[in-house]
Amino acid sequence: MKAVVLGAAGGIGQPLSLLLKSNPLITELSLYDIVNAPGVAVDLSHIATPAKVEGYLPADDGLKKTLTGANIVVIPAGIPRKPGMTRDDLFKINAGIVRDLATGIAEHAPKAFVLVISNPVNSTVPIVAEVFKNKGVFDPKRLFGVTTLDVVRASTFVSEIIGDRGLATSVTVPVVGGHSGITIVPILSQSSHPLPASLTGDARAALINRIQFGGDEVVKAKDGAGSATLSMAFAGAEFAGKVLRAAKGETGIVAPTYVNLAADSTGAKALSGIIGDLEYFSAPVELGPEGVKKINGLGSLDDSEKKLVEAALGDLKTNIEKGVSFVGSSKL
Ligand SMILES: NC(=O)C1=CN([C@@H]2O[C@H](COP(=O)(O)OP(=O)(O)OC[C@H]3O[C@@H](n4cnc5c(N)ncnc54)[C@H](O)[C@@H]3O)[C@@H](O)[C@H]2O)C=CC1
Ligand SMILES: O=C([O-])CC(=O)C(=O)O
Predict the structure, then answer these.
(1) CA distance from start to end of the chain
(2) Which listed CATH number (3.60.40.10, 3.40.50.720, 1.10.150.170, 3.90.110.10) goes with 147-327?
(3) What residue ranges do the domains of the chain occupy?
(4) Max Cα distance, the chain (Å)
(5) Ligand 1 pocket member 145 (CB < 6 A)
(6) Does the annotation flag 36 for ligand binding?
(7) What is the per-residue pLDDT for 68?
(8) With 60 as the cut, is the pLDDT of residue 158 above it?
């Protein structure tokens, strides 16, 4: 399995590459950035795990060399937020970065699984899809927006409320919708532990708000030096590991991820009752050898959760249209 990280020298890219170097399923790790990727690669190459590591810059066909033969490509390239910014404020710069990297993937590794971390995820995933469609290589089963950090945060915050941090690694709460503000929808009623579902009033509202705006906590604490990097690297490596395990034939792996709903028309139909005709949504997805095997429905939601999903739809629609039309207009 050849894994690629695009944006590998950055705050997420470096620890993510470290974690991927530690994944025994990966035999080759190829790193790309506009700065410092060869240095990061040599550093990682001394670690005593099987993966062979290479690093490239744009010069001398670096992107092509990085991508050729890739099975999985993870994209954390792009600028992070500073205090006062929304994820959508990153669109101006990151949309072009993601479009150009997607063009390279479509040309040199069109069959790879593509995992998009670069924000705003709600828009950057449609950008990748539109580029792939233009190149005639789009397979919706192989494209994923990484929303795992929301799931990781939910596990952590719930374990804190329960008062047993040991549960952080096992308690799960599905988080669906998208990856920004109110598009992040925690389904507390479906937590694997009974406590979240039993919360009411301010305690329930506070937990939902913390999961939705957890990213802001980090942006504020870093005070101008960026956003979540280490927790994102952990989440990204976890999700990439799941995609790889499913590709190797392991069954029963389900994770929320932001996908193009054409990946599973039956699943999309089941969702349409609550999300209408949205083209993208993060729902629990069963992974398989070809990527998306099945998009699971949202299960039974209580009335307040239905309202949270409804509240997410407007922003999601706008974010998706913005990504789609960006690629459309860049063709002119
Ligand atoms: N999906 C999620 O849950 C999360 C997403 N993010 C997003 O991830 C992105 C990266 O964040 P950080 O690593 O903190 O930023 P960073 O600035 O530390 O690193 C970004 C890296 O991308 C590289 N880069 C820029 N343009 C490039 C290009 N054209 N080709 C290849 N590499 C390029 C930069 O040189 C830099 O090394 C941001 O957009 C951030 O908002 C961050 C946290 C969570
Ligand atoms: O908050 C940000 O900008 C980075 C991010 O997506 C997160 O931490 O969830």
Answers:
(1) 37
(2) 3.90.110.10
(3) 2-145, 147-327
(4) 59
(5) no
(6) no
(7) 98
(8) yes
pLDDT of 329 > 90? The answer is no
| The pLDDT of residue 331 is above 80 | no
pLDDT at 18 over 60: yes
Output the pLDDT for position 332: 56
Query: ipTM above 0.95?
Result: yes
The CATH superfamily of 2-145 is NAD(P)-binding Rossmann-like Domain (3.40.50.720)
Nearest CA residue ID for atom 29, ligand 1? 97
Residue 100, pLDDT > 70, answer yes
- 180 contacts 87 by C-beta, under 8 angstroms: yes
pTM exceeding the 0.90 threshold for the entire prediction: yes
CA atoms within 13 Å, Cβ hemisphere of 316: 25
CA-nearest of 128, 129, 141 to 262 is 141
Distances (CA, A) of 198 to 55, 175, 240: 49, 17, 32
Check the annotation: does 205 bind a ligand: no
Long-range contacts, 302-307 (Cβ 8 Å, 24+): 302/189, 304/204, 305/185, 305/187, 305/188, 305/189, 306/274
> Nearest to residue 292, comparing CAs of 315, 324, 260?
260
pLDDT tens-digit readout, 216-231: 999 999 999 999 999 9
pLDDT mean over 24-39: 98
Tokens for 91, please give them. Answer: 């669109």
Whose CA is closest to atom 1 on ligand 2? 215
46 is catalytic: no
Catalytic residue among 46, 108, 179, 193: 179
Closest CA to 116 of 107, 108, 125: 125
- The answer to whether residue 106 scores a pLDDT higher than 90 is yes
* Nearest-angstrom CA–CA distance, 44 and 67: 18
Closest alpha carbon to 5 in 61, 70, 60 = 70
